[in-house]
């Protein structure tokens, strides 16, 4: 997954076309994904 994200981020021409709203949306999705991953790792709390 991280490798995929790195590949996407390396495509700067694609990245530059994003609007601030797009960036905010994807950041929120990424944060949510990270929360889920962290939650899955610490299910016994």
How does this structure look, described?
With 45 residues, the protein is mainly alpha-helical. 80% of the residues lie in helices and 0% in strands. It contains three helices and no strands.
Entry keywords:
3 helices, 45 residues, mainly alpha, single chain
Outline the fold blueprint:
Elements: H1 2-10, H2 12-16, H3 20-41
Characterize this entry briefly.
The protein has helices at residues 2-10, 12-16, 20-41. It is mainly α.
Q: Major sheet: size, sense and barrel closure?
A: none
**Radius of gyration from the alpha-carbon trace, in angstroms:** 13 Å
Query: Total number of β-strand segments?
Result: 0
Q: Structural class of the helices, strands and pairings?
A: mainly alpha
Determine the N-to-C terminus distance. 26 Å
Helix content: over 70%
For the record, the count of structural domains works out to 1
Q: What shape does the CA trace take?
A: elongated
- Count the helices. How many? 3
| Uncertain residue ranges | none
Give, in order, the helices and strands: HHH
């Amino acid at each position: 997954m991280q490798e995929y994200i790195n590949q996407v981020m390396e495509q700067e021409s694609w990245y530059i076309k994003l609007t601030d709203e797009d960036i905010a949306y994807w950041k929120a999705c990424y944060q949510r994904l990270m929360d889920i991953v962290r939650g899955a790792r610490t299910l016994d709390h």
